[in-house]
Design brief:
This protein has helices at 2-5, 34-37, 46-53, 72-80, 99-106, 141-144, 147-164, 187-196, and strands spanning 10-13, 21-25, 63-65, 86-88, 110-112, 120-126, 168-178, 200-208, 217-224. It is α/β, with parallel strands linked by helices. It has two domains: 2-37, no CATH class; 46-224, Rossmann fold, CATH 3.40.50.150. It has a seven-stranded mixed β-sheet, sandwiched between helices. The chain has a two-stranded antiparallel sheet with strand order 1-2. Helix 4 (72-80) links the parallel strand 3 (63-65) and strand 4. Helix 3 (46-53) packs parallel to helix 4. The longest helix is centred in the last third of the chain and has 18 residues, at 147-164. InterPro entries: MeTrfase_RsmB-F_NOP2_cat, MeTrfase_RsmB-F_NOP2_dom, RCMT, SAM-dependent_MTases_sf. Pfam families: Methyltr_RsmB-F.
């Protein structure tokens, strides 16, 4: 906070996560600030930070971010582990092109992989979704989402869950996360997974609606019991 204030960037604590700050003045300066350049801050919605904060992570855990994208949650995972290491994968590797540089700036140990195998103590599956939890920022999204689109997304989500489940060590955790508020993508998807995979139990998670403090999201923590 002090580093941002020194550059006339005003912030307030965000109640969603202990790590979250909401910029209240001069937001455009953050990406050019010394605090950002030195890896003290990252740009990320408070909801995403809350998801990572709630994950069942033990020191030294073997962790995979399977749908890493730009790597925001990967870096947050590494921070929770005291710098890493965290394995990062994405179906479209180009999305991770900036991740090594971001990790270096943050002092995080991140291993980009195109063929993760495990076993991992925690796999984060932040799956492609409708993005309905972020419609407060992009309201046109609700008009662009068609029924066929939702069907395709649900099929992709189910396939990802089935792919990563064998990578989780016995007793380990699978975190299924969306930025959606639609039950078909959330509890409905988790219930279907549990029906296909009886060796798993839902052991935690949360569903949060969008508000002034951040986007809506859904997270389910599944534990491999056998």
């Amino acid at each position: 906070e002090a580093a941002l204030a020194a550059e006339d960037i005003a912030v307030r604590r965000n109640p969603r996560a202990a790590t979250a700050l909401t910029v209240t003045a001069n937001a455009r300066r953050v990406a050019q600030s010394a605090a950002y350049r030195d890896g003290l801050v990252e740009l990320q919605d408070a909801g995403s930070q809350a998801v990572i904060e709630a994950l069942p992570l033990a020191p030294g855990a073997r962790v995979l971010d399977y749908c890493a994208g730009g790597g925001g949650k990967t870096l947050a995972l590494a921070a929770r582990l005291g710098g890493g290491p965290v394995a990062a994968h994405d179906a479209h590797p180009r999305r991770m092109s900036d991740l090594p540089a971001r990790a270096a700036r943050a002092g995080a140990r991140v291993a980009v992989t195109d063929a993760p195998r495990g076993p991992y103590d925690l796999v984060l599956a932040d799956v492609p979704c409708s993005g309905s939890g972020a419609w407060r920022r992009a309201p046109d999204g609700k008009w662009r989402l068609l029924p066929d689109d939702l069907d395709r997304l649900r099929a992709t989500q189910a396939a990802i869950l089935d792919t990563v489940a064998p990578m989780v060590a016995p007793g380990g955790h699978l975190a299924y996360v969306t930025c959606s508020v639609l039950p078909e993508e959330n509890a409905g998807q988790v219930d279907a997974f549990a029906a296909r995979h009886p060796g798993w139990e839902v052991t935690g998670g949360s569903a949060v609606l969008p508000d002034a403090d951040g986007d809506g999201f859904y997270a389910a923590h599944l534990t491999r019991v056998r």
